[in-house]
TrEMBL record:
Membrane topology term: Multi-pass membrane protein
Cell cycle in keyword set: no
Protein name: Na+/panthothenate symporter
GO CC aspect terms: plasma membrane
The keyword Repressor is annotated on this UniProt entry: no
Gene3D superfamilies per record: Sodium/glucose cotransporter
GO MF entries: symporter activity
Transmembrane segments: 6-24, 36-58, 70-89, 119-137, 143-168, 175-197, 231-250, 262-286, 317-337, 358-378, 384-409, 416-434, 440-461
Source organism per UniProt: Methanomethylovorans hollandica (strain DSM 15978 / NBRC 107637 / DMS1)
Main location: membrane
Compartments where located: Cell membrane
Organism domain of life: Archaea
Similarity-based family: Belongs to the sodium:solute symporter (SSF) (TC 2.A.21) family.
Length: 471
């Protein structure tokens, strides 16, 4: 009963805050009119929007089958890429300000003077982000099933209702502020789970009870190469996912972005260490018979840990933490996905469409995408981590290459931009079906996309010199 009460209070709270921060203009809805002035809000919201329920459930449980390599590589890459992301964030903010860009496809379109590239990238985002949403919905369904005692489908329906209300009312200002509060809840929830395992395992003695096979850097039942690839592909998103980049766009000035670089990496480090360690630490507390059901379905481990280790009420905080992880990510993803469809594709097809009409369509389309993703989540046979890794990897590759080269290499052209999108997306899809499964598709996408970008740029007309280096 306590969990249900906490959930109701939580939902009322975020809906109330969304109403208070409701925006009436398209610019306010998608980039908060570039008026966010608190570094801690952007830094922690960045962390919350990045780590979804897929990380809370899938990332926490994946260590059960992948062993110590998953923990080492996941924590290392997440912390390293978070630090790198905020080192280059001021330059990304300056670039967005320079081109007056409200979406990532729009930013790259104006950098490369390429409407074709913008529409192609928006289409890729629409497809792959919908796949990513399916993975998050799967996590939410498992979560409500484990902690509220409802069926998986009922959990999906609850999730749709909350996310749809949250998204339609909110816009980016509400998303950022609520993600900041959700990020704080996520940190508390992850530390409660981590602390509960350590306490039950008698502190450092817990490591003596963990089987050697789990602590072997060769991997447990999952080869270390797959853990390495999954961790790299997922954490690369910290540098290039559009739902994170729009938070940088929303900052009032460069100072806000620079100081957000303190709060972002620290919160990422705390959360990643606590969550990604849960799978291997569980071996030090529970018997192999107790953990056996979760070997086949690692995504159910975290709800089991919450109800088994924590007293009544505290497991409700973990519930809110996992819901927070889902809500913060879903709302940001739905926002950038729908703006990719309405602002980037619709405005390309019908440039005369007024912004107020685009705003209405953005809200309606967002709800439709939420319903479609939930429908496909009814039957998802894969574990969350590989599904998230594949979808995030495609988006990260397609954005990372033209964004990074666009910041630091003036010779990049529209031809190079479009070629990199086609090469990245095409190579990732082909490798997924025909490549070596021990080599993650994101590495292939990065290599092919980079070669195509450089080759396409060098063999096409040189653009006018850019002044972005001076920003």
């Amino acid at each position: 009963m306590i969990n249900q009460v906490l959930l109701v209070i939580y939902v009322i709270g975020i809906i109330s805050l969304s109403l208070k921060l409701r925006q009436g203009t398209f610019s306010g809805f998608v980039i908060s009119d570039r008026q966010v002035m608190y570094p801690a809000v952007i830094g922690i919201a960045y962390m919350a929007a990045y780590f979804s329920a897929a990380s809370f459930l899938g990332g926490g449980g994946f260590g059960l089958v992948a062993g110590l390599p998953w923990v080492i590589w996941a924590v290392f890459f997440h912390v390293a890429f978070a630090c790198l992301a905020f080192l280059i964030a001021p330059k990304i903010w300056a670039m967005a300000q320079h081109y007056d860009a409200r979406t990532v496809p729009q930013l790259l379109e104006r950098r490369y003077n390429s409407q074709k590239g913008k529409v192609l990238l928006a289409g890729i985002m629409l497809v792959m982000y919908t796949v990513y949403l399916v993975a998050i919905f799967k996590g939410c369904g498992n979560l409500f099933q484990g902690l509220l005692g409802v069926t998986y489908v009922q959990g999906l329906i609850i999730t749709v209702g909350i996310v749809a209300l949250y998204y339609v009312i909110g816009g980016l200002p509400a998303i950022i502020w609520i993600s900041f509060l959700q990020g704080l809840i996520m940190l508390v929830g992850s530390m409660l789970l981590y602390g509960g395992l350590i306490s039950s395992g008698q502190g450092t003695m817990i490591w003596n009870n963990i089987p050697d096979a789990v602590l072997n850097m060769g991997g447990n039942t999952v080869p270390w190469q797959k853990s390495f690839g999954n961790a790299f592909a997922i954490s690369l998103g910290l540098l290039a996912l559009p739902d994170l980049l729009i938070m940088i766009f929303s900052a009032r000035d460069k100072r806000v972005v620079r100081f957000a670089g303190i709060y972002g990496p620290i919160s990422v480090a705390i959360y990643a260490l606590c969550i990604f360690s849960l799978g291997i630490l569980a071996y030090g507390v529970f018997t192999s018979e107790e953990l056996a059901p979760f070997i086949a379905n690692p995504d159910g481990l975290v709800p089991f840990l919450a109800t088994s280790l924590l007293p009544s009420g505290f497991d409700g905080i973990v519930l809110l933490a996992a819901i927070s992880a889902a809500m913060s990510t879903m709302s940001a993803i739905v926002l950038v996905t729908t703006t990719a469809l309405t602002s980037d594709i619709l405005k390309f097809l019908s440039p005369a469409t007024p912004d107020d009409r685009v705003l209405v369509m953005t809200r309606i389309t967002g709800v439709m995408i939420i319903i479609v993703a939930a429908f496909f989540a009814v039957d998802v046979p894969q574990m969350i981590v590989p599904l998230v890794s594949a979808s995030m990897g495609v988006i990260a590759c397609c954005v990372f290459i033209p964004l990074m080269f666009g910041l630091y290499w003036d010779r990049g052209t529209s031809t190079g931009f479009v070629a990199s999108l086609i090469a990245s997306f095409g190579s990732v899809v082909l490798w997924q079906y025909y490549g070596n499964p021990l080599i993650h598709t994101v590495f292939i996408g990065l290599i092919c996309g980079t070669v195509a970008y450089i080759g396409g740029s060098l063999f096409s007309a040189q653009p006018l010199p850019s002044d972005m280096r001076k920003e």
